[in-house]
Design a protein that fits this description.
A hairpin with a 7-residue loop joins strand 21 (about 395-400) and strand 22 (about 405-410). The protein is built from 14 helices and 27 strands. It is an alpha+beta fold and about 525 residues long. Helix 2 (about 40-60) crosses helix 10. Helices cover about 30% and strands about 25% of the residues. Bound molecules: glycyl-adenosine-5'-phosphate (GAP). The site of glycyl-adenosine-5'-phosphate has 19 residues, from strand 14, strand 17, strand 20 and helix 10.
Length: about 525
Amino acid sequence: MSTSSPKSMDAIMALCKRRGFIFQASDIYGGINGFWDYGPLGAQLKKNLRDAWWQDMILNPCWGRKGPNGDRVKCVPLETCIIQHPKVWEASGHVGGFNDPMVDCKETKGRYRYDHVQVYVPESGDPSDKPVFAYVGDQPSEAKQKKKAEKTFGAIKSVLLSSIPQPWTRVIGPDADKPGTLTEPRMFNLMFDTITGAIRDESNKVYLRPETAQGVFLHFKNVADTSRVKIPFGIGNTGRSFRNEVTPRNFTFRSREFEQAELEFFCHPDESVAWYQFWRDFRMEWWKTMGLAGENLILREHDKNELSHYSQGTSDVEYRFPFTAPGFGELEGIAHRGNYDLTQHAKHSGSKLEYFDTDRGELLPNGAKKGERYIPHCIEPAAGLDRGALALICEGYTKDESRPSPEFLKLHPRIAPIKAAVFPLVAKDGMPEVGEKLHAELFRKFGHSGFIEFDEKQSIGKRYARMDEGGCPFCFTIDGDTLTDQTVTCRDRDSGAQQRIPISKVSEFLSEKLGM
Ligand code: GAP
C-alpha cells in the first residue's frame, strides 16, 4: 500500500461481508456498536493466526532459537477464566486506574475520548486563553479538520496532544461548528461488570477481564511448581477480553470484545533488559513472516516519558491501516513490566510469589549452588488477534481491474482460510471422479489448517474469482489432459500464472508452499 493512496476501508469492509470474513454482531437487529462476529472464512483466518502464534510462541518458541541466556526459549500455555475474583483487578490497578477521559458534545450528541483530542493552537494564541480546535485521533479526516481549524482561526501555529487541563470550553468538537459544546472531561472506567449468583447486590459484583495477562500472574506459582519449568520461561494465554471503549471505531480495530494473545515471560531482573530487546525484535520479525513486511510495519519504541514508573521499556509493533494512514495503529505492545504485577498480587493476596532459583548463588562445597530467592521480572509481548487479522486483510486487499475478480486477497498461505481448491473443468468425462480423489488426498493432509474446496459448477473463471476473493493461494484444475497425461493445472492466486504439474506431486507442491 502506498502512503499516498490508502486502500478504501469501505471496499475492504464490503469484501469482508460479501465473502463471509466479518459481520456486524446482531446484524439483523441493526448491529451493536463495538461488537463484530467472524463468518466462516474470518473464523478460520483468525484461528490460523492464533494457531501460528501458539506454534511459534508456545510449542516451538521463536522457531527453536536460543535466547540471550544461550538456551532455547521455553514457554508453556495456560487457559484462564474471563471472570476472576474482583480483588484481582484492584491489585492490577484496573479498578482504580483503567480509565479514559470522556467528553460529550451537547450539540451533536457525539461522544469522544478526550485523550484523542488534538488541540490546534492558532498562530496568534496560546491554548489557555484563545480559542482552540479539536480533532479526535483515530479518524481519517485529520487533514479536513485542520483545514476547518485554519478557516476558523487563521494560520495554525502548532498541534498539541490533549491533556485534561486543556480548556475544553474553547475546543470545537470534531463534528460541531463552534467552541463550547463539549462537556467537562470525566473519567470513565473501561471494565464491564456483572453479578455472580442470585443476589444482585454490590458485594457480588465481578468484572469481565480487560486483558488476558492477569490470569497468568495469578498462576505463576502454580505453573512454576507443577510444570518443571525453570526461569527464564514464558506462560502464554489467549482469549477474549472486554473493554467498554468510549468510542469503538474503525471496524474491528477498537472493539468492546476482542481477542488477545499474550505471553508473560519471567526472567531474572539482571537479564530482563536483554530479554526485552530479544522479544521486541522477535515479535517484529514474526509479524513480518505473517505477510506484513514492508513500509507498512514499524517498531516504535516509547519515549521515556510515556513509560509506567515500573517499566524499563515498551515498544509497539504498528501497522499502517488505511484509516490511520499516513500514521500507524498498534498491533502489539511489548512491555518490560518489571516485577510490578507479581508484587501487587503478592501484596493484595498475601501469597508469596517469589521464585527460588537453584541455578544462582554461590557454589557450595557439595558442588550445588546456594540458590537465590527473588521476584522475577516480566517481559510481555501482548498481541491483538482481531487487529492482526484486520491488518492481514488490509495488507492482502489488492485491486486489479484486469483480473476475473477485480479485488482479491493476497493472504500468506500459512494464514489463508482456504488452502487450496480442486476444480474439475467440466462435470463429466470422469473429471469429477479424479478431482474428488485429489480433494480427499489434500483434505487428509491439509484439512486441519483450512478449507480444501471442491467445486464443479459455473465457469472456471468465476470459480477462480471466488477463490481469489477468499484469499485461496492455489487452485488445481482437472481437464482433458489430466485424463491422458496425469497432470493438472496449478494456478497461482497472486500472479494468475498457470503451470502443469503431475497430479501425484500436488500434495508435495502444496506442502512446500504452505510450509507444512
Ligand atoms: N496486557 C497488556 C495489554 O492488554 P494493550 O496494549 O492494552 O496491552 C494489547 O493490549 C493488544 O490488545 C493491543 O496491541 C491490541 O492489539 C489489542 N487491543 C487492545 N484493545 C483493543 C480493542 N479495544 N479492540 C481490539 N483490540 C484491542
